[in-house]
Protein backbone atom coordinates (compact mmCIF):
# COMPACT_ATOMS: atom_id res chain seq x y z
CA UNK A 1 0.00 0.00 0.00
CA UNK A 2 2.81 2.41 0.89
CA UNK A 3 4.53 1.55 -2.38
CA UNK A 4 1.32 2.32 -4.27
CA UNK A 5 0.87 5.69 -2.52
CA UNK A 6 4.48 6.59 -3.27
CA UNK A 7 4.02 5.87 -6.97
CA UNK A 8 0.75 7.83 -6.98
CA UNK A 9 2.50 10.85 -5.45
CA UNK A 10 5.23 10.72 -8.09
CA UNK A 11 2.60 10.45 -10.83
CA UNK A 12 0.66 13.47 -9.52
CA UNK A 13 3.88 15.48 -9.32
CA UNK A 14 4.77 14.61 -12.91
CA UNK A 15 1.24 15.40 -14.13
CA UNK A 16 1.29 18.66 -12.24
CA UNK A 17 4.68 19.63 -13.76
CA UNK A 18 3.78 18.76 -17.34
CA UNK A 19 0.30 20.14 -16.90
CA UNK A 20 1.77 23.56 -16.07
CA UNK A 21 4.11 23.25 -19.01
CA UNK A 22 1.18 22.26 -21.26
CA UNK A 23 -0.83 25.27 -20.09
CA UNK A 24 2.12 27.49 -20.84
CA UNK A 25 2.43 26.02 -24.32
CA UNK A 26 -1.29 26.47 -24.96
CA UNK A 27 -1.02 30.12 -23.90
CA UNK A 28 1.89 30.60 -26.30
CA UNK A 29 -0.19 29.12 -29.11
CA UNK A 30 -2.82 31.78 -28.47
CA UNK A 31 -0.30 34.59 -29.02
CA UNK A 32 -0.18 35.95 -32.61
CA UNK A 33 3.57 36.44 -33.04
CA UNK A 34 3.06 38.20 -36.37
CA UNK A 35 0.73 40.77 -34.82
CA UNK A 36 1.98 41.33 -31.28
CA UNK A 37 -0.25 43.19 -28.83
CA UNK A 38 2.76 45.19 -27.61
CA UNK A 39 5.13 46.74 -30.15
CA UNK A 40 8.44 48.38 -29.21
CA UNK A 41 8.77 52.03 -30.17
CA UNK A 42 11.88 51.54 -32.31
CA UNK A 43 10.34 49.44 -35.14
CA UNK A 44 7.32 51.74 -35.18
CA UNK A 45 9.64 54.67 -35.84
CA UNK A 46 11.53 52.75 -38.51
CA UNK A 47 8.35 51.80 -40.33
CA UNK A 48 6.93 55.31 -40.10
CA UNK A 49 9.96 57.03 -41.63
CA UNK A 50 10.32 54.32 -44.27
CA UNK A 51 6.71 54.95 -45.38
CA UNK A 52 7.42 58.69 -45.59
CA UNK A 53 10.58 58.25 -47.63
CA UNK A 54 8.96 55.74 -49.96
CA UNK A 55 6.13 58.17 -50.65
CA UNK A 56 8.42 61.13 -51.33
CA UNK A 57 10.75 59.08 -53.57
CA UNK A 58 8.09 57.15 -55.48
CA UNK A 59 7.04 57.98 -59.02
CA UNK A 60 3.93 55.82 -58.94
CA UNK A 61 1.16 57.96 -60.45
CA UNK A 62 -1.22 56.76 -57.75
CA UNK A 63 0.75 58.48 -55.00
CA UNK A 64 3.49 60.85 -56.18
CA UNK A 65 3.29 62.99 -59.31
CA UNK A 66 5.69 65.75 -58.31
CA UNK A 67 8.35 64.91 -60.92
CA UNK A 68 5.54 65.50 -63.41
CA UNK A 69 4.32 68.70 -61.75
CA UNK A 70 7.90 70.02 -61.84
CA UNK A 71 7.86 69.04 -65.56
CA UNK A 72 11.04 66.99 -65.32
CA UNK A 73 9.37 64.02 -66.99
CA UNK A 74 6.69 63.55 -69.63
CA UNK A 75 4.34 60.60 -69.93
CA UNK A 76 3.72 58.12 -72.70
CA UNK A 77 0.40 56.29 -72.99
CA UNK A 78 -1.53 57.94 -70.17
CA UNK A 79 -0.82 61.68 -69.72
CA UNK A 80 -3.63 62.36 -67.23
CA UNK A 81 -1.29 63.37 -64.42
CA UNK A 82 0.67 65.73 -66.69
CA UNK A 83 -2.70 67.29 -67.52
CA UNK A 84 -3.28 67.77 -63.78
CA UNK A 85 -6.10 65.31 -63.26
CA UNK A 86 -6.14 64.92 -59.48
CA UNK A 87 -9.33 62.92 -59.17
CA UNK A 88 -9.44 59.63 -61.04
CA UNK A 89 -6.46 57.98 -59.36
CA UNK A 90 -7.13 59.28 -55.82
CA UNK A 91 -3.55 60.57 -55.64
CA UNK A 92 -4.39 63.04 -52.88
CA UNK A 93 -6.05 60.31 -50.84
CA UNK A 94 -2.99 58.09 -51.04
CA UNK A 95 -0.63 60.88 -49.99
CA UNK A 96 -3.01 61.80 -47.15
CA UNK A 97 -3.28 58.19 -45.95
CA UNK A 98 0.44 57.52 -46.11
CA UNK A 99 1.44 60.59 -44.13
CA UNK A 100 -1.34 60.39 -41.54
CA UNK A 101 -1.92 56.65 -41.12
CA UNK A 102 1.43 55.12 -42.03
CA UNK A 103 3.87 57.79 -40.89
CA UNK A 104 2.37 60.07 -38.26
CA UNK A 105 0.36 57.36 -36.53
CA UNK A 106 3.37 55.06 -36.28
CA UNK A 107 5.80 57.68 -35.04
CA UNK A 108 3.26 59.05 -32.53
CA UNK A 109 2.93 55.49 -31.22
CA UNK A 110 6.70 55.27 -31.01
CA UNK A 111 6.79 58.55 -29.09
CA UNK A 112 4.19 57.33 -26.60
CA UNK A 113 6.05 54.08 -25.94
CA UNK A 114 9.54 55.55 -25.73
CA UNK A 115 8.46 58.43 -23.49
CA UNK A 116 7.39 55.81 -20.90
CA UNK A 117 10.70 53.95 -20.96
CA UNK A 118 12.55 54.07 -17.64
CA UNK A 119 16.14 55.24 -17.65
CA UNK A 120 18.76 54.65 -14.98
CA UNK A 121 21.93 56.36 -16.16
CA UNK A 122 22.48 59.83 -17.63
CA UNK A 123 23.52 58.20 -20.91
CA UNK A 124 20.25 56.26 -21.11
CA UNK A 125 18.33 59.48 -20.50
CA UNK A 126 20.31 61.28 -23.22
CA UNK A 127 19.62 58.48 -25.71
CA UNK A 128 15.92 58.58 -24.84
CA UNK A 129 15.81 62.36 -25.38
CA UNK A 130 17.60 61.95 -28.70
CA UNK A 131 15.06 59.38 -29.85
CA UNK A 132 12.18 61.67 -28.93
CA UNK A 133 13.87 64.59 -30.70
CA UNK A 134 14.25 62.52 -33.87
CA UNK A 135 10.56 61.58 -33.72
CA UNK A 136 9.61 65.25 -33.35
CA UNK A 137 11.81 66.27 -36.30
CA UNK A 138 10.20 63.60 -38.45
CA UNK A 139 6.77 64.74 -37.32
CA UNK A 140 7.60 68.32 -38.31
CA UNK A 141 8.70 67.16 -41.75
CA UNK A 142 5.48 65.17 -42.25
CA UNK A 143 3.12 67.93 -41.11
CA UNK A 144 4.93 70.61 -43.09
CA UNK A 145 4.62 68.41 -46.18
CA UNK A 146 0.88 67.97 -45.63
CA UNK A 147 0.46 71.74 -45.29
CA UNK A 148 2.60 72.38 -48.37
CA UNK A 149 0.46 69.96 -50.39
CA UNK A 150 -3.06 70.78 -49.19
CA UNK A 151 -3.09 73.94 -47.04
CA UNK A 152 -5.27 73.69 -43.93
CA UNK A 153 -5.21 70.13 -42.59
CA UNK A 154 -6.11 68.29 -39.36
CA UNK A 155 -3.45 68.87 -36.71
CA UNK A 156 -4.60 69.43 -33.14
CA UNK A 157 -7.34 66.78 -33.47
CA UNK A 158 -5.50 64.49 -35.91
CA UNK A 159 -4.64 60.84 -35.10
CA UNK A 160 -7.37 60.51 -32.45
CA UNK A 161 -9.28 57.30 -33.23
CA UNK A 162 -12.03 58.49 -30.90
CA UNK A 163 -12.65 61.49 -33.17
CA UNK A 164 -13.65 60.54 -36.74
CA UNK A 165 -14.29 64.20 -37.67
CA UNK A 166 -11.17 66.18 -36.77
CA UNK A 167 -11.16 69.88 -37.50
CA UNK A 168 -8.80 71.34 -40.10
CA UNK A 169 -6.36 73.76 -38.48
CA UNK A 170 -5.19 76.97 -40.11
CA UNK A 171 -2.04 76.25 -42.13
CA UNK A 172 -0.07 79.24 -40.83
CA UNK A 173 -0.98 78.29 -37.26
CA UNK A 174 0.27 74.74 -37.89
CA UNK A 175 3.57 76.17 -39.12
CA UNK A 176 3.91 78.18 -35.91
CA UNK A 177 3.31 75.07 -33.81
CA UNK A 178 5.66 72.77 -35.68
CA UNK A 179 8.43 75.39 -35.75
CA UNK A 180 8.20 75.56 -31.96
CA UNK A 181 8.32 71.75 -31.87
CA UNK A 182 11.38 71.77 -34.13
CA UNK A 183 13.15 74.36 -31.96
CA UNK A 184 12.52 72.24 -28.86
CA UNK A 185 13.87 69.14 -30.62
CA UNK A 186 17.02 70.99 -31.73
CA UNK A 187 17.61 72.22 -28.18
CA UNK A 188 17.23 68.74 -26.69
CA UNK A 189 19.67 66.90 -28.99
CA UNK A 190 22.88 65.59 -27.45
CA UNK A 191 25.25 64.92 -30.38
CA UNK A 192 27.66 63.06 -28.07
CA UNK A 193 25.16 60.20 -27.74
CA UNK A 194 23.27 58.09 -30.26
CA UNK A 195 19.57 58.08 -31.00
CA UNK A 196 17.82 55.13 -32.59
CA UNK A 197 21.11 53.52 -33.65
CA UNK A 198 20.37 50.57 -35.98
CA UNK A 199 16.64 51.37 -36.00
CA UNK A 200 17.47 54.65 -37.74
CA UNK A 201 17.52 53.92 -41.51
CA UNK A 202 18.75 57.44 -42.32
CA UNK A 203 21.71 58.35 -40.11
CA UNK A 204 22.14 55.17 -38.02
CA UNK A 205 21.76 57.10 -34.81
CA UNK A 206 24.28 59.84 -35.66
CA UNK A 207 22.77 62.77 -33.78
CA UNK A 208 25.21 65.32 -35.19
CA UNK A 209 23.73 64.60 -38.61
CA UNK A 210 20.19 64.77 -37.23
CA UNK A 211 21.01 68.15 -35.70
CA UNK A 212 22.30 69.48 -39.04
CA UNK A 213 19.23 68.10 -40.79
CA UNK A 214 16.91 69.74 -38.23
CA UNK A 215 18.60 73.10 -38.78
CA UNK A 216 18.32 72.65 -42.55
CA UNK A 217 14.63 71.86 -42.18
CA UNK A 218 14.27 75.00 -40.06
CA UNK A 219 16.00 76.98 -42.81
CA UNK A 220 13.62 75.52 -45.39
CA UNK A 221 10.57 76.47 -43.31
CA UNK A 222 12.04 79.91 -42.71
CA UNK A 223 12.29 80.62 -46.43
CA UNK A 224 8.77 79.28 -46.95
CA UNK A 225 7.63 82.13 -44.69
CA UNK A 226 9.74 84.84 -46.31
CA UNK A 227 6.95 86.57 -48.23
CA UNK A 228 4.26 86.32 -45.54
CA UNK A 229 6.19 86.77 -42.29
CA UNK A 230 9.60 88.25 -43.13
CA UNK A 231 10.53 89.03 -39.51
CA UNK A 232 10.00 85.45 -38.35
CA UNK A 233 11.66 84.15 -41.50
CA UNK A 234 14.76 86.26 -40.89
CA UNK A 235 15.08 85.25 -37.25
CA UNK A 236 14.69 81.55 -38.05
CA UNK A 237 17.14 81.59 -40.95
CA UNK A 238 19.80 83.41 -38.95
CA UNK A 239 19.39 80.97 -36.05
CA UNK A 240 19.68 77.92 -38.30
CA UNK A 241 22.35 79.02 -40.78
CA UNK A 242 25.47 78.05 -38.84
CA UNK A 243 24.28 74.51 -38.15
CA UNK A 244 22.94 73.26 -41.49
CA UNK A 245 24.02 70.32 -43.66
CA UNK A 246 27.56 71.08 -44.85
CA UNK A 247 28.24 68.31 -47.40
CA UNK A 248 26.51 65.56 -49.34
CA UNK A 249 27.37 63.07 -46.61
CA UNK A 250 24.71 64.75 -44.49
CA UNK A 251 21.89 64.52 -47.03
CA UNK A 252 18.58 63.45 -45.49
CA UNK A 253 18.02 60.21 -47.35
CA UNK A 254 17.48 56.48 -46.91
CA UNK A 255 20.08 54.16 -48.36
CA UNK A 256 17.99 51.61 -50.19
CA UNK A 257 19.42 48.19 -51.06
CA UNK A 258 19.55 46.07 -54.20
CA UNK A 259 17.36 43.37 -52.65
CA UNK A 260 13.58 43.46 -52.40
CA UNK A 261 11.65 44.68 -50.42
CA UNK A 262 14.20 47.37 -49.54
CA UNK A 263 14.78 48.75 -53.02
CA UNK A 264 14.26 52.35 -54.01
CA UNK A 265 10.62 52.72 -55.12
CA UNK A 266 11.87 54.30 -58.34
CA UNK A 267 13.37 50.94 -59.29
CA UNK A 268 10.04 49.29 -58.59
CA UNK A 269 8.18 51.79 -60.79
CA UNK A 270 10.71 52.10 -63.61
CA UNK A 271 12.33 48.66 -63.81
CA UNK A 272 10.55 45.91 -61.89
CA UNK A 273 7.17 46.93 -63.31
CA UNK A 274 8.42 46.45 -66.86
CA UNK A 275 6.49 49.56 -67.89
CA UNK A 276 7.64 52.47 -70.06
CA UNK A 277 5.43 55.22 -68.66
CA UNK A 278 7.97 58.04 -68.41
CA UNK A 279 10.52 59.79 -70.58
CA UNK A 280 12.41 63.04 -69.97
CA UNK A 281 10.39 66.15 -70.73
CA UNK A 282 11.56 68.51 -73.45
CA UNK A 283 11.05 71.27 -70.87
CA UNK A 284 14.05 69.90 -68.99
CA UNK A 285 16.19 68.59 -71.85
CA UNK A 286 15.87 71.81 -73.86
CA UNK A 287 16.81 73.98 -70.89
CA UNK A 288 19.81 71.82 -70.00
CA UNK A 289 20.95 71.75 -73.63
CA UNK A 290 20.85 75.54 -73.78
CA UNK A 291 23.18 75.89 -70.79
CA UNK A 292 25.46 72.92 -71.64
CA UNK A 293 24.61 71.23 -68.36
CA UNK A 294 27.09 68.39 -67.61
CA UNK A 295 24.42 66.46 -65.68
CA UNK A 296 22.65 65.51 -68.92
CA UNK A 297 24.32 62.09 -69.40
CA UNK A 298 23.39 61.30 -65.79
CA UNK A 299 19.85 62.62 -65.73
CA UNK A 300 19.18 61.04 -69.16
CA UNK A 301 20.29 58.06 -71.18
CA UNK A 302 20.85 58.37 -74.94
CA UNK A 303 23.52 56.51 -76.95
CA UNK A 304 23.57 59.34 -79.50
CA UNK A 305 24.69 61.88 -76.93
CA UNK A 306 21.94 64.21 -78.19
CA UNK A 307 19.32 64.68 -75.53
CA UNK A 308 15.68 65.21 -76.43
CA UNK A 309 12.50 64.91 -74.42
CA UNK A 310 8.84 64.33 -75.06
CA UNK A 311 6.09 66.92 -75.15
CA UNK A 312 4.95 67.69 -71.64
CA UNK A 313 1.27 66.99 -71.09
CA UNK A 314 0.88 64.87 -74.23
CA UNK A 315 0.85 61.13 -74.91
CA UNK A 316 4.34 60.49 -76.29
CA UNK A 317 5.83 57.36 -77.80
CA UNK A 318 8.29 55.69 -75.45
CA UNK A 319 10.85 55.42 -78.27
CA UNK A 320 12.43 58.21 -80.30
CA UNK A 321 13.41 60.22 -77.22
CA UNK A 322 16.11 60.07 -74.59
CA UNK A 323 15.31 57.83 -71.65
CA UNK A 324 15.47 58.25 -67.89
CA UNK A 325 19.11 58.00 -66.75
CA UNK A 326 20.43 54.64 -65.62
CA UNK A 327 21.43 55.89 -62.16
CA UNK A 328 17.81 56.79 -61.43
CA UNK A 329 16.93 53.14 -62.04
CA UNK A 330 19.45 51.72 -59.57
CA UNK A 331 17.66 49.74 -56.83
CA UNK A 332 20.01 51.02 -54.11
CA UNK A 333 19.91 54.70 -55.07
CA UNK A 334 19.93 56.97 -52.01
CA UNK A 335 16.41 58.31 -51.50
CA UNK A 336 17.12 61.95 -50.62
CA UNK A 337 14.40 64.37 -49.56
CA UNK A 338 16.52 67.24 -48.14
CA UNK A 339 19.98 67.89 -49.52
CA UNK A 340 23.14 69.95 -49.11
CA UNK A 341 22.46 71.52 -52.50
CA UNK A 342 19.00 72.68 -51.42
CA UNK A 343 20.45 74.11 -48.21
CA UNK A 344 22.99 76.21 -50.12
CA UNK A 345 20.28 77.54 -52.45
CA UNK A 346 18.26 78.50 -49.37
CA UNK A 347 21.27 80.37 -47.97
CA UNK A 348 21.73 82.19 -51.29
CA UNK A 349 18.09 83.26 -51.14
CA UNK A 350 18.48 84.33 -47.51
CA UNK A 351 21.41 86.59 -48.39
CA UNK A 352 19.42 88.22 -51.20
CA UNK A 353 16.64 88.92 -48.71
CA UNK A 354 19.08 90.71 -46.42
CA UNK A 355 19.42 88.00 -43.77
CA UNK A 356 22.71 87.76 -41.84
CA UNK A 357 23.57 84.15 -42.64
CA UNK A 358 27.18 84.66 -43.74
CA UNK A 359 28.74 84.61 -47.20
CA UNK A 360 27.45 86.16 -50.40
CA UNK A 361 24.54 85.06 -52.55
CA UNK A 362 26.96 84.17 -55.33
CA UNK A 363 29.11 82.03 -53.03
CA UNK A 364 26.12 80.04 -51.82
CA UNK A 365 24.70 79.79 -55.34
CA UNK A 366 28.01 78.40 -56.65
CA UNK A 367 28.26 76.02 -53.69
CA UNK A 368 24.72 74.78 -54.32
CA UNK A 369 25.44 74.01 -57.97
CA UNK A 370 28.74 72.31 -57.11
CA UNK A 371 26.98 70.25 -54.43
CA UNK A 372 24.48 69.02 -56.99
CA UNK A 373 27.25 68.18 -59.45
CA UNK A 374 29.13 66.26 -56.76
CA UNK A 375 25.96 64.45 -55.71
CA UNK A 376 25.56 63.13 -59.26
CA UNK A 377 29.23 62.34 -59.85
CA UNK A 378 30.13 65.24 -62.17
CA UNK A 379 33.82 66.14 -62.15
CA UNK A 380 35.06 69.31 -60.50
CA UNK A 381 36.41 70.54 -63.83
CA UNK A 382 33.04 70.14 -65.55
CA UNK A 383 31.26 71.82 -62.65
CA UNK A 384 33.67 74.77 -62.77
CA UNK A 385 33.23 75.09 -66.55
CA UNK A 386 29.45 75.08 -66.12
CA UNK A 387 29.64 77.98 -63.67
CA UNK A 388 31.44 80.01 -66.34
CA UNK A 389 28.53 79.72 -68.78
CA UNK A 390 27.09 83.20 -69.33
CA UNK A 391 23.55 82.01 -68.61
CA UNK A 392 24.70 80.29 -65.42
CA UNK A 393 27.29 82.57 -63.80
CA UNK A 394 25.59 84.56 -61.06
CA UNK A 395 26.70 87.96 -62.35
CA UNK A 396 25.56 87.35 -65.93
CA UNK A 397 22.66 84.88 -65.71
CA UNK A 398 19.42 86.48 -66.91
CA UNK A 399 16.79 87.85 -64.57
CA UNK A 400 16.64 89.02 -60.99
CA UNK A 401 17.86 86.86 -58.11
CA UNK A 402 14.66 84.81 -57.88
CA UNK A 403 15.04 83.85 -61.54
CA UNK A 404 18.74 82.98 -61.18
CA UNK A 405 18.39 80.97 -57.99
CA UNK A 406 15.00 79.49 -58.89
CA UNK A 407 16.01 78.10 -62.27
CA UNK A 408 19.22 76.50 -60.99
CA UNK A 409 17.51 75.15 -57.90
CA UNK A 410 14.86 73.61 -60.15
CA UNK A 411 17.61 71.84 -62.12
CA UNK A 412 19.29 70.57 -58.96
CA UNK A 413 16.07 69.23 -57.43
CA UNK A 414 15.64 66.81 -60.36
CA UNK A 415 15.18 63.77 -58.13
CA UNK A 416 13.33 65.70 -55.43
CA UNK A 417 10.23 66.49 -57.46
CA UNK A 418 8.29 67.97 -54.57
CA UNK A 419 10.97 70.60 -53.97
CA UNK A 420 11.27 71.26 -57.72
CA UNK A 421 7.55 72.05 -57.91
CA UNK A 422 7.74 74.05 -54.67
CA UNK A 423 10.68 76.11 -55.95
CA UNK A 424 8.46 77.23 -58.83
CA UNK A 425 5.59 78.03 -56.46
CA UNK A 426 7.82 80.04 -54.10
CA UNK A 427 10.28 81.83 -56.38
CA UNK A 428 7.96 82.37 -59.36
CA UNK A 429 10.71 81.96 -61.95
CA UNK A 430 9.40 82.24 -65.50
CA UNK A 431 10.24 80.99 -68.96
CA UNK A 432 10.81 77.35 -67.95
CA UNK A 433 7.56 75.52 -67.16
CA UNK A 434 5.09 75.31 -70.03
CA UNK A 435 1.36 74.86 -70.42
CA UNK A 436 0.25 71.37 -71.54
CA UNK A 437 -1.50 71.26 -74.94
CA UNK A 438 -4.82 73.14 -74.92
CA UNK A 439 -4.12 74.48 -71.42
CA UNK A 440 -2.60 77.65 -69.98
CA UNK A 441 0.13 78.33 -67.41
CA UNK A 442 -2.57 79.17 -64.88
CA UNK A 443 -3.66 75.52 -65.03
CA UNK A 444 -0.42 74.35 -63.36
CA UNK A 445 -1.58 73.42 -59.84
CA UNK A 446 -0.42 75.31 -56.80
CA UNK A 447 -1.87 72.72 -54.40
CA UNK A 448 -3.69 69.40 -54.28
CA UNK A 449 -7.42 69.26 -53.73
CA UNK A 450 -8.56 67.45 -50.60
CA UNK A 451 -9.15 63.67 -50.84
CA UNK A 452 -12.61 62.84 -52.13
CA UNK A 453 -13.25 60.46 -49.24
CA UNK A 454 -12.91 63.36 -46.81
CA UNK A 455 -16.09 64.83 -48.30
CA UNK A 456 -17.90 61.65 -47.28
CA UNK A 457 -16.22 60.93 -43.95
CA UNK A 458 -15.59 64.46 -42.67
CA UNK A 459 -17.68 66.68 -44.93
CA UNK A 460 -18.54 69.51 -42.54
CA UNK A 461 -14.95 70.05 -41.47
CA UNK A 462 -13.72 69.83 -45.07
CA UNK A 463 -16.26 72.42 -46.19
CA UNK A 464 -15.11 74.78 -43.44
CA UNK A 465 -11.49 74.28 -44.49
CA UNK A 466 -12.29 74.87 -48.17
CA UNK A 467 -14.02 78.13 -47.30
CA UNK A 468 -11.13 79.22 -45.08
CA UNK A 469 -8.49 78.77 -47.80
CA UNK A 470 -10.56 80.35 -50.57
CA UNK A 471 -11.89 77.20 -52.22
CA UNK A 472 -10.81 73.57 -52.57
CA UNK A 473 -9.24 74.20 -55.97
CA UNK A 474 -5.96 73.25 -57.65
CA UNK A 475 -5.35 76.96 -58.23
CA UNK A 476 -5.79 77.99 -54.58
CA UNK A 477 -2.44 79.01 -53.18
CA UNK A 478 -0.84 77.72 -49.97
CA UNK A 479 -0.65 80.49 -47.36
CA UNK A 480 3.06 81.18 -47.99
CA UNK A 481 2.62 81.46 -51.78
CA UNK A 482 1.76 85.16 -52.07
CA UNK A 483 3.84 86.60 -54.93
Shape: globular
Number of domains: 1
Order of helices and strands: HHHEHHEEHHHEHEHHEEEHHHHHHH
What is the first-to-last residue Cα distance? 103 Å
Which structural class is indicated by helix and strand composition? mainly alpha
User: What is the C-alpha radius of gyration, as a whole number of Å?
Assistant: 26 Å
Number of strands: 8
Strand percent estimate: under 5%
CATH class: Mainly Alpha
Largest sheet: 2 strands, antiparallel
Pfam families: SusD-like_2
InterPro entries: SusD-like_2, TPR-like_helical_dom_sf
Signal peptide: 1-19
Protein name: SusD/RagB family nutrient-binding outer membrane lipoprotein
What does the model show?
The protein is globular. Helix 4 packs antiparallel against helix 5 and helix 5 packs parallel to helix 7 (207-224). The longest helix is centred in the N-terminal third of the chain and has 29 residues, at 122-150. The protein has a single domain (41-266, 330-469), classed as Serine Threonine Protein Phosphatase 5, Tetratricopeptide repeat (Alpha Horseshoe). The strands form four sheets. It has a two-stranded antiparallel sheet. Strands 2-3 form a two-stranded antiparallel sheet. A two-stranded antiparallel sheet has the order 4-8. Residues 1-26 have low confidence and may be disordered. With 483 residues, it is mostly helical. The protein is built from 18 helices and eight strands.
